[in-house]
Amino acid sequence: MAEHLHFNESSEEDFEMMGSMEEPPWVLAMGWLLSGLGIAGNCFIILLIASKKQLHRTTNWFLVSLSFADLGVSLSVFPGDFFCLPVEECQFVVLASFQWAFLFASVLNLCALTMDRYIAIAKPFIYVLFMSTKRVLAFICAAWILPFTFSFVPHAFIYNERHVDTMRRYTYFMLIVFEFIPPVSLVLVTAHMLYIARKHARETAAVVEQLRYNQPAASSGNAPQARRPNRARTSVIFITSIVLFFVLCYSVNIALSCCQIFYICDYPFGLETAQRLLLIANSAFNPFAYGFLKQDIKREVKQLLRVGVTETQRSSFQMEQQR
To answer: Where is the G-protein coupled receptors family 1 profile domain (predicted)?
Structure first.
């Protein structure tokens, strides 16, 4: 992957050196596999939500925005490096800016999605009034405008040696705002959502138990079901899975950023390879999490699979009849 955003006067030479290095075959295979899964999966989610009117919900618009960001990551990180770095005329710094703009957009869109679910679970009545269409659009626009603005600002002074100190301070700012604060905030918010979900589950179980006590003659078929699927619970499981995988994948990126920017440690070249693959893996994982863990999308995927199987069986039957 192209160098981090701590650009300096040696950046171009660093990129050219990276372009001259050959990747091991297994890295190329994994990189293209994860990139392909990310491109296919995120395109599928975008088209599915756009084409199904029943999926046109507030949360799903955040998912569409996140899928576009992950699609940008899948297209720019590994394929971008593969095709650009070996070419001498390639604008390496521009490539790096696009890569990190999409990565930061993915981070902020995940934050927006988590915030949406947190308000819906913690303050459901406030959520109905607060999360209007205009606010959803404002959050999504902010999640895109901020990363692209901050990723391309360095181009104004990147080649001016007098601004090296300014660039260094700017890099510290970017590291804190886009790489330190989001993971910590996501973990804290998700932990609080888990606490609220457990609290609601205990309260619901207590109410159901009280109803059973007050109606001892109720048959098992008519008794309230304590374990009925809960929308808040499924939302928490869905968000928790995405956040945990995000933190796992970005932990190597944060460690590598600290080594590169603060010069506090040496790191093997293999760590950069792991960083690239994990960043792509995060974008490739998200569509599968939507399909397996988000109930409305899971339902539509099952419907598509049923239709596909039915059409295949019908075609096979018609071919047999023609014989």
So the answer is: 41-290
DSSP letter (8 states) at residue 156: G
Interaxial angle between packed helices 25-51 and 295-322, expressed in degrees from 0 to 180 and rounded to the nearest 10? 90
pLDDT tens for each residue of 46-73: 999 999 999 999 999 999 999 999 999 9
Between CA 254 and CA 263 the distance in angstroms is 13
Q: What is the DSSP string of 49-94?
A: HHH-GGG--HHHHHHHHHHHHHHHHHHHSHHHHHHHTT-TTS-HHH
Structure tokens at 263: 């010069």
Cβ 183 vs Cβ 250: under 8 Å? yes
Q: How far is it, in rounded angstroms, from Cα 298 to Cα 294? A: 6
Per the CB < 8 A criterion, the answer to whether 186 and 246 are in contact is: yes
Task: Identify whether the C-beta of residue 48 lies closer than 8 Å to the C-beta of residue 300.
Answer: yes
How far apart CA 54 and CA 300 sit, in angstroms, is 9
Rounded CA separation 246/186 (Å): 10
Q: Positive or negative, the Cα torsion across 231, 233, 238, 243?
A: positive
| Cβ–Cβ under 8 Å, residues 268 and 290 | no
Amino acid at 85: L
pLDDT the model gives residue 258: 79
Q: pLDDT tens digit string along 111-144?
A: 999 999 999 998 888 998 899 999 999 999 999 9
How large is the average pLDDT for residues 256-278? 79
Task: State the sign of the Cα–Cα–Cα–Cα dihedral 258, 39, 146, 120.
Answer: negative
Are 38 and 73 contacting, i.e. CB atoms less than 8 angstroms apart?
yes
Instruction: Compute the C-alpha angle 269/272/274, nearest 5°.
Output: 110
Cα 179 from Cα 254, distance rounded (Å): 6
Whose structure tokens read 């940008």? Answer: 72
Q: Please choose, from the candidates 201, 292, 197, the residue with its C-alpha nearest in 3D space to the C-alpha of residue 241.
A: 292
